[in-house]
Structure formats: structure tokens, C-alpha cells
Amino acid sequence: MNTVRSRPVVLCLSGHDPSGGAGLQADIEAIMAQGCHAAPTVTALTVQNSIDVSDFRVLDADWVLAQADAVIKDMTVAGVKLGMLGSVSMVDTVVQILQRLQGLPIVCDPVLRAGGGGALGKDEVGYAMRERLLPVATIATPNLPEARILAELPNGTPDECAAKLLPFCQHLLITGGHGEESRVHNRLYSRDGSTATFTCDRLPGSYHGSGCTLASALAGRLALGEDTHTAVENALAYTWRTLRDADRPGAGQYFPRRLPTDFCN
Q1: What are φ and ψ of residue 102, in 5° steps?
Q2: Cα separation, 77 vs 35, whole angstroms
Q3: What angle do CA 156, 157, 161 make, to 5 degrees?
Q4: pTM of the predicted model, to two decimals?
């Protein structure tokens, strides 16, 4: 009889990236690396590779609800990770799902752009996420360009964006890496007024799926019971290592190496 203790289950609601660099595959690998089990619900299908995204299609709400319902009926969900939703109607669909999962840690990664710059949803999707999902999320993890869209501040600093967004969410992690500074600054803001900055060395190259990797690792750490500050610190450290060890399977961006090469040995 198998008496091994079950791993915490993290429900992932995000898009599928056929290149495997971002989206649900990134979620699955990063969550596995934290010692958790990923339960992926597909919200959208994309046409993309390591260079850019060229198209996407949001799934019917009934299909998404059915996927999530099958998991929720069968498993005890310990955390939720939200990624690409792609439309305002899908935001509403996800709100319906979350109403059944109250009291769980929820990480909202407001995916609006692919690593190559292509759009994965109109700005109005970001605004819907801000108004309807950030208030129920434990933490949101936008990069600075995404934070500027959400805050409607095209040239806003991280502090200015945080001031605009914190009324909507408990915690906000605005990630760096989009400038030219030699050190990357990732800033954690909390509604109680506390802040923390985590810095790391900038790595050469451009990466596909780094945001998905971070948000999923963070969801895994929270599902394991870590407090927000510790979970953020551990997820950032893990993500940096995946970028340090990244490889380049295509002609474009590097892919984070989320699982060790001997993971299955």
C-alpha cells in the first residue's frame, strides 16, 4: 500500500504555449520543482514560439469550467495560479471558479504580453483583472510594463504603480529586468505599508517564460504554507537559478531550465 504523503495541489488556469517555454508547461515544471502537483486548466490556445506570439484563441467558458470542476471535485486544492486569460469573459469565468475556492492562496500573473512583445490580450483584459481578480488574489506579480498597463500610468515608476494598484490587492510584486541596470530590483509592496526589495545580478540574454516560472513557483511555495515574504524570496531565488541555467532550443529567447537534468533519474 502506498503511504507516501500527497503533494499539495496547485490549480493552474492559463494558456498553452506549444513551444513549452511559457504557459502551462512552465507552470507544471515550476510547481513540480517546489514539491507540489500542478493541475492545469487550459484557458486559451496560442500560436507562439521562442521568437514571438502570432495568434491566440480563448476557449469557451463551459470547457474551462468543466476542466476546473473535474479537478475541484476530485482533489483538495491548496493554491491557485492565474496566468493568461485572454478576454474579459474569461476573467468572469475564472471569478466563478475562484468563488468555489475561497481562503486559498491565489497568485495572479497578469499576462498581457509574450516575452517577444506580442499581445496576449487587450489592455481591457488587464483592467478587468485589476477590478475583479486582484481583490481576491493573495498577490499579483506583474512586471513593470504590465504594472503600468494595470495602473494606467504609461511612464509610472514601480512606487507610483504600486500606489495605484494596492487598493485592489493584498500584496504586489513588481518584477524588474526590463531596464538596463546591472542589478535587477524586484519590489514587494503590501497593503499594510510594508515594502521589501530583492536584488539579483542581471543575466545576459532574453528569456521566454520567466514570469510564468516565478508566479508558479510562488504559488507552490504558498501552497506549502510559507508566508508571503519567505515565499517571494524563495520563488525569486529559484527563478534566477532557472535563468542562469537556461538553454536555447529555438532561434529566439532562452528558456528557463525549471527542472534539473537528473530530475527523473
Answers
A1: -70, 145
A2: 14
A3: 70
A4: 0.94
